[in-house]
Amino acid sequence: MNKQKLTKLTLIPILFLVMCIMGGKWNLRDRIKPVLVKKYKHDYSIVYITAKWCPACRVMRRNLAHPDIVKTIKQNYNYFVVDVDKNPSYCKKMRISLLPTTVIIHHYVRNGKYGNFERKRYIGSLSVSQLKNFLKLPKSPISKKS
């Protein structure tokens, strides 16, 4: 065999492996099933969009600090706070026009790829009872009178 053909034959498998590792167009999905690592702790995220100068945001921040709400969020959701003044590009991407805005996003894996979609959006301040309903908290059992 020609020396040039030998170098081409040895380089092709090496380039193929490098492209697979680097996430190129070639993939070994047919031969090796991909191992997917969860990006987030929970399947749902709450994104709270706020600003320091917003009075309704201050009320909402106080309601989000309620112990029942904090417990529910820690158990079931990833929680992110986005400041409009610090992240204007993200707010533009999410089409935020009024504050405060609370968004619930669902994270999923389909065909080996991660995806997100918006499940719920509420614009304005929510009371604690409205937040419980928004987060679908189970109602506490009513004690029976004896």
Automatic annotation (TrEMBL):
The chain crosses the membrane at residues 6-24. Coiled coil: none annotated. Keywords: Membrane, Transmembrane, Transmembrane helix. This is Thioredoxin domain-containing protein. Residues 41-135 form the Thioredoxin domain.
